[in-house]
């Protein structure tokens, strides 16, 4: 295991990372709409879809993922000419992320745009731009998950953040204040989902006004089976159970911390009660298997929620660990899905921190942020200690989002519609058109509905 070269001011760059050193295997293949050219099968192009009702989709969102995040992770895992699973997805586009009321979006507005196909104001979930953040509701919007459920698809949401956090919540909740997560937890319990996995147990305890011991019983009264660790997730057998996985009181641990917890739980001398937290890959693979049981079509939303958190703190190594874990989950999904019937999209909701990659003769490749606490913070808070800390050009206690466009990657049926410069609302229309067996109107992809 290599660590970044130590430098008092600048963060040197390594080619192998602690928690994410190896690329996950993946299956190549796309299924563009229309006629498949001769010899396409050898190139990984799947035959045309047999029946529109068989169509499924997976949307991957890495919170905070800007272009430099992908480049830095690629270099860390395989060098300048390395290839991530994201790189192997054959269609790409650039996505504009601005909110209705601000050129710099937050996760609530960005996720609402992707989930509901409409731009809204920052801080608002599942409502249109007539909402006023924290004051009054706008008109409710139907999310792609609700739409898919009405059409008989199985639906699930997976995140490494709290399940009540802005990005996952936009796919099932309607609220004018993303920060009122206890109210959002109440909506989660009433959401028409087959599975909801992530962190945030404390929000549900507060909502239900109970202690830990009664949580399983109370969520069961609302139709959910509660699981709280990796073993519990794997033990779920009954296909009719709606599964609420809450694997941490707050957000799930950062990837390097999760790996340490997993090793501790597996050690022979592990203390009674120690439990492993499932990785994003484990949750993704489990969810695909569960939702697709019996050959039913499904829609799965998967968020890697913690690249954004690491970027806010200017923790460069942890950021790369998180993006690498996200990329592993993407690769694991591609290896299990049929490109003839399934569309996979992978994107970010916005860019965080203004990550840049440069080079200096005295220190090699350097990662810096435009905003954030930089090296002026307590290193013991960071998963990789002081070697995690990257410098910043504009000191701020909490690194900010930026207006930088984000990448969108596509694979499978209908992926050929992803090209050029798109609005983030295009994600909704791409998913809906694919699940309907249609081709999306190009205007809906390049112009935002407000």
In short:
The protein is α/β, with parallel strands linked by helices.
Tell me about this structure.
This protein is an alpha/beta fold. It has one domain (about 50-445): Alkaline Phosphatase, subunit A. α1 (about 65-80) crosses α12, α10 (about 280-290) runs parallel beside α12 and α11 runs antiparallel to α12 (about 315-335). It has 14 helices and 15 strands. Helices cover about 30% and strands about 20% of the residues.
Could you name the key traits of this structure?
single chain; alpha/beta; Alkaline Phosphatase, subunit A; ten-stranded mixed beta sheet; three-stranded mixed beta sheet; 15 strands; globular; disordered N terminus
Q: What does the secondary structure layout of this molecule look like, with pairings?
A:
Blueprint: E1 56-62, H1 67-78, E2 91-96, H2 107-116, H3 144-150, E3 154-162, H4 166-169, H5 181-189, E4 195-199, H6 201-208, H7 215-220, E5 224-227, H8 230-235, E6 242-246, H9 255-266, H10 280-291, E7 298-304, H11 306-312, H12 316-334, E8 342-348, E9 351-352, E10 356-360, E11 364-372, E12 392-395, E13 401-402, E14 406-412, E15 421-423, H13 426-436, H14 442-446
Parallel strand pairs: 1-7, 1-8, 2-15, 3-4, 3-7, 4-6, 5-6, 11-12
Antiparallel strand pairs: 2-14, 8-14, 9-13, 10-11
Helix pairs in contact: 1-12, 5-6, 10-12, 11-12
